[in-house]
């Protein structure tokens, strides 16, 4: 049988049908190149150099198929990580949205305010908590303590993260002569929490009041 292969000077006639069973000698856990070697090439009527090149090409394809999911995953993660940030407006504050918080909250975990327990942040598959705070007066400070909750039907408190103090380095403000003062954001590792509540643990500054936004990335 000649056909198209004959154009390349390859004769695959004669014993092709009889010799195909030799494929059962191929070792699937090793590269195809070089096995079963020149004997197969001779049986198929294909010069060994051509056979070796063909099997090497097959090996390259198999490697590409194996590596493609890994390479795609590593490429997609940064894109997804970057595309999900600030896709919409900052929205309502997680704490103090309806009325800014003007006093430190109780440390009794059984009597936390509804503005905290009713506005827990769902963590999902994220790993970092980011909190932004705004305050009413210049020069004040706000201390936030994240409270960690589990995944029970009635969420229970697992523990707390270290409190962090939000300090105003400069008078960045929402308006030239009015509006809240914007403080630098702080971040925490979510430590495996299912949900997180933001506790306002302390405020300083005369007549100060604060709002807090929180999200996970």
Structural account:
The protein has 217 residues and is an alpha+beta fold. It is 24% helix and 23% strand. The protein contains 4 helices and 9 strands; from the N terminus they run ααααβββββββββ. Strands 1, 3, 4, 5 and 8 form a 5-stranded antiparallel β-sheet that branches. Strands 2, 6, 7 and 9 form a 4-stranded antiparallel β-sheet that branches. A hairpin with a 7-residue loop joins β3 and β4. The protein is elongated and about 90 Å long. About 8% of the residues have low confidence.
Helical content band: 10-25%
Radius of gyration: 33 Å
Oligomer: single chain
Mean pLDDT reading: 78
Structural class estimated from helices and strands = alpha+beta
- Number of strand segments: 9
**Residue windows where pLDDT falls under 50 for at least 5 positions:** 15-23, 74-81
Largest sheet at a glance?
A: 5 strands, antiparallel
Shape: elongated
Portion in beta strands: 15-25%
């Amino acid at each position: 049988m000649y056909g198209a292969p004959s154009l390349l000077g390859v004769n695959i006639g004669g014993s092709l049908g009889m010799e195909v069973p030799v494929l059962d000698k191929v070792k699937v856990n090793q590269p195809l190149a070089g096995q079963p070697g020149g004997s197969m090439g001779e049986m198929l009527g294909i010069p060994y150099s051509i056979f070796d090149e063909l099997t090497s090409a097959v090996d390259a394809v198999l490697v590409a198929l194996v590596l493609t999911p890994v390479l795609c995953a590593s490429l997609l993660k940064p894109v997804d990580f970057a595309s999900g940030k600030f896709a919409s407006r900052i929205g309502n504050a997680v704490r103090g949205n309806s009325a800014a918080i003007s006093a430190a909250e109780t440390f009794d975990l059984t009597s936390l305010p509804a503005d905290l327990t009713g506005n827990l942040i769902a963590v999902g598959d994220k790993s970092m908590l980011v909190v932004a705070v705004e305050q009413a007066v210049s020069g004040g400070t706000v201390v936030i303590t994240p409270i960690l909750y589990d995944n029970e039907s009635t969420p229970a408190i697992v523990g707390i993260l270290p409190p962090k103090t939000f300090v105003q380095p400069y008078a960045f403000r929402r308006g030239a002569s009015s509006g809240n003062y914007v403080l630098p954001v702080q971040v925490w590792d979510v430590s495996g929490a299912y949900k997180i509540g933001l506790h306002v643990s302390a405020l300083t500054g005369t007549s100060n009041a604060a709002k807090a936004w929180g999200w996970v990335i």
